[in-house]
Every structure is written in C-alpha cells, then in structure tokens.
Amino acid sequence: MPAVLIIQFLDFFQSFFSAYHVFVQVASHNFEKFLADKQIILHLLQMSLAEQILLPSGSEAVVPQPGEPQNLGDLSTAGQFSLVYWPHQCEVIRDRIEHIDWIPTNPEPLYTTTGLEMTPPYQTPDKGTTSVLLLPLPDKNSCFMYSQVKDLCPLKQILHQEGDNTLIFEARFESGNLQKVVKVNEFEYQLTLRTDLYTSRHTQWYYFQVSNTQAGMPYRFTIVNFTKRNSLYKRGLRPLLYSEADAKEHKVGWRRTGDDIKYYKTSVGQDGRQYFSLTWTFQFPYDQDTCYFAHCYPYTYSNLQEYLVAISKDPVKSRFCKIHILCHSLAGNTVYALTITNPPKSDKDTERKAVILTARVHPGETNSSWIMKGFLDYILGDSGKAQLLRDNFVFKVVPMLNPDGVIVGNHRCSLTGQDLNRKYKSNGKKFYPSIWYTRKMIKR
Ligand SMILES: [Zn+2]
C-alpha cells in the first residue's frame, strides 16, 4: 500500500476569513496500521457508527445503485455531463442562473459596529403584513422518495400587480435557499430560510433572487431563523449582493454590502426554539434590476460540471487528469472523482504516493469549492512545481462529496437529512454512497 496523504477542504468558516479545516497526514507503509496509529485522516473512519435510516419500501427502485468507479472516457470528451436530478417535491424554475467571475479589487469591506444598530422584532404574519413568498416546506418527517430532472416553469407564488413596488423573491434554482418572505413595511422584509430538506434544522446558507427593485431606497432585510448563537456577522461579515445590471454594464460581480448589520436573538421564539436574526440595510444600485443575495460566493453542481467539461476538453490537461464516476448520489447525481498524475516515464516509475482531497461535504460551505478550484487550477497548470508534483504523486480528488445537498440549497445535510461528515464510519453504502466509495477509494 502506498503512503497516503489526505486533505479535506471543509470550511465551516464561510467567508473572507478564508479559514477552513485542512486535514493532512502522511501515511506510513502500512495503511491499516497508519489508520490505527494516527487516528486522524479527514475525521475519516474515526466517527461513530452511523444510525441507519429507513427509506420507505418502493424507494429503492428509483435510487440508482452505485456501481464500481467508471471512467468517463468518451462521455467526458464529448462534454456530455450528467443532468441535474432534484427530489420530486422540489419546484425548479426554468431560468438558468449564471453569474460572472469577478475578483474585487479591494479586500472585502468589514462592517464596524456602531452600537446604534436596530433589532427589528419578529413579526407574526397576521399583523397587517403581507406574505410575498411562500414556498412549500417539505415535512421534516418525510424523507427522500425519488428524484426527477426538472425543467418546470411554475408561476410565481404571488402574482405581481403592475405598479406595485413590492419586491419579487425567487429561490427555486440550484443552491437557492429561501422559504418565506413577509413584507413588514414599504421597504422592509422579513425572511425565513428553508431548513435542510427533511430536517427542521440547519439554517445558515442563503441564496435568493430579488427583482422589481427601486434604486436608492432604504431597504431592510431581516432573516429571522438562524439557529447558531454566534456568527461572523457579529465580527464584521456583510451579506453578498450581485446585481445583473452591474454585471452587464460594469462587469462587477458578487460584492459584500449592507449597513446597520446586527445578528441577535429573535424576539419571539417560534415553536419553542431559540432562533437568531440577521438584519441589514442596503440600497439597490438600479431600478428594475434583478439582484441576488448570498451568504458566501455560490458554487453550484453545474459550476463544477462546467469546470470538469473544460478539463476534459483540454488536450493537455485531459492527458494527466482523468475524470471518473465515483458513484451516484441518492438522487442520482454523479459524484465525480479525478485522478491526476503524469504518465509513468519508465517501467520503474510505478510506485507513487497518493494524495487524497475532498471538498463540499457540507453544501453551505461554498468556499471549500473555491479552494478546490484554486488547487485544481494550480495542479493542472504548467508550472514546474505542478509538473514535479504530478511526476511524484497521484492526486485523487472528490471535488463535491454532497452534490444533492448542494443542488437543493442545503446548509449541512444530504438527502438523508444526515450530516455526511459524521458518516465516514458508516456501512450505509446505499444511504451515503459518496462517503462509502471515497473510503473504499482510500483503502485501495
Ligand atoms: Zn463543514
């Protein structure tokens, strides 16, 4: 067994602080002994045994059975990557959401607390307020049944009247997350995030679209159902804004924005639980613009597939980067694995150490995908150091361990409603296929 180096890009600090878990360990000759001795590796294999969850009978027929790793070969060279599968309960708009790549010229601006920030109270929806968005919330006691490829174009939840300046919200797209919006005042909205599918927990990630904007008006958004006591929003983090008009006119992409930012206990505990609110004020740059807000720079499953297509079509990179199907997720989405190494130079050149990297076990931690992209840009590049690394190591990369969670806009879980980062010791091949096959890949 070759020595193994394993790195996991986790994250959990979303943001410009760019902190992330990186687990690095170099194995001794005996891999099994290494595992026993070192007990580090990713959190891998050291987690408690998983509880098995039971899917209702009949569901098995629609869950693709993960098979042996399959080389994409012709598939990838043809650029034919797989379709995106959604749980059947999810509504999805037809529009393809795309954002330009843009690197801000200055470091992200921090918000400095003044002590004068407002803390808008939680508004129960009956006090003269108007619901402007209300998406179906799958029952937390339900579970994943089957998936579909979506190309639906449902009507807006609330039909818009001409001359009405009420903002229009939308989140039924890849990685979108927003469940309910209540208009509290002319320019003030109270937002509720959708919990991870089939759970009643895990709200942190948000990503939604707003249209029918008015430039220069004093808008306030308050997200009322965060569950964590502490937040980087207490330390200067600002929400991200993306303006389609700014992207088109000025080639400006995602940027941190907002003032009067406050993260605080929600005044009324809904359903007996303590929630936390994030409130901020801002102005839209243009009238009748379509804008987006997000917790951290989005990186969707489709973004990953586009990136992999580009690699597979690159005559140089595709020589030393092979893209495989590691397995399929519960919903049937392809979990990709990459093998990166230069072709052997001689017959003796066969034993190379393996380096294993994984990212995006937690869907809301998009920064791990950006770190992974940075790594792949580097290791597939033509610098002397990258070539040397490819000459001496085999890099095994699983860039997105939890595609289903990423697609549906979860923060932490897969479609089992479980945290995959706690399932490395599980034998639940059927329920946690990406984890099971990654572990198998490491053992090989
Ligand atoms: Zn994490």
Largest sheet: 6 strands, mixed
Query: Which stretches of 5+ consecutive residues score pLDDT under 50?
Result: 10-68, 73-78
What is the CATH topology of the largest domain? Immunoglobulin-like
SS elements, strand count: 19
CATH architecture of the largest domain: Sandwich
| Estimated share of beta-strand residues | 15-25%
Catalytic activity: (L-glutamyl)(n+1)-gamma-L-glutamyl-L-glutamyl-[protein] + H2O = (L-glutamyl)(n)-gamma-L-glutamyl-L-glutamyl-[protein] + L-glutamate
Keywords: Carboxypeptidase, Hydrolase, Protease
Protein name: AGBL carboxypeptidase 3
GO molecular function: metallocarboxypeptidase activity; zinc ion binding
Describe the protein:
With 444 residues, the chain is an alpha+beta fold. The protein has three domains: 1-46, no CATH class; 50-92 and 299-346 and 369-438, no CATH class; 130-294, Immunoglobulin-like. It is built from nine helices and 19 strands. A six-stranded mixed beta sheet has the order 1-18-19-17-16-2, sandwiched between helices. A six-stranded mixed beta sheet has the order 4-7-8-10-14-13, with no helix packed on it. Strands 6-9-15-11-12 form a five-stranded antiparallel beta sheet. The protein is globular, with a radius of gyration of 23 Å. Bound molecules: zinc ion (ZN). Residues 10-12, 362, 365, 421 line the site of zinc ion. It catalyses: (L-glutamyl)(n+1)-gamma-L-glutamyl-L-glutamyl-[protein] + H2O = (L-glutamyl)(n)-gamma-L-glutamyl-L-glutamyl-[protein] + L-glutamate.
